């Protein structure tokens, strides 16, 4: 009986370890799918902007989730030397529903729409005090409140700097000149080769014509000699 009990315990232990392994794999797969298709927000490929003092700028932000959204909460903050100032906040209840937004700054206008997963804002009449980092944040209840944020840098200047394109112009001119010379050289080479081939053909024709003339002259001379020979 003791041996049976020990065998049974071993089998039971193996089953339990197998169940634990199976459960671990399932959890890992679920976590992997959740992380791959999880909520992400983006402020675009270029996450900074230089703008003139007094102008109006767009602070872009979009969200994406392969799983979908439910009660998506989002907001914009301005990082004022470490002190976060909330500019606006809102919520999108389900896919396709328009955002419900509360704005806390009179110079901020929400211009987003759920059609393009867009939660961007406009900042009117910017001043030098608006220079700094702006943070777009979102949280999705459908993904167990998974959240993500992205930052956008605004640089306020008095005038836009002209980019010195002298070096670029020189490089383009040199490259263009080299390419042009190469093409010209190829054209000249082709013309020379064509001229030489035609000249060679003419020489061959002259040689053939000269050979034919010599042959005919030889035959004529032979005939003349034959006619001039006296009969015996």
Automatic annotation (TrEMBL):
Keywords: Disulfide bond, Glycoprotein, Immunoglobulin domain, Membrane, Signal, Transmembrane, Transmembrane helix. It is a single-pass type I membrane protein. It is found in: Membrane. The chain crosses the membrane at residues 20-39, 170-197. Residues 222-232 have a biased composition (Basic and acidic residues). InterPro entries: Ig-like_dom, Ig-like_dom_sf, Ig-like_fold, Ig_sub, Ig_V-set, Myelin_P0-rel. Residues 54-153 form the Ig-like domain. One of its GO terms (biological process) is cardiac muscle cell action potential involved in contraction. One of its GO terms (cellular component) is voltage-gated sodium channel complex. Its main location: membrane. GO terms for molecular function: sodium channel regulator activity; transmembrane transporter binding. Residues 209-218 have a biased composition (Polar residues). Residues 207-232 are annotated as: Disordered. SUPFAM superfamilies: Immunoglobulin. Pfam families: V-set. This is Ig-like domain-containing protein.
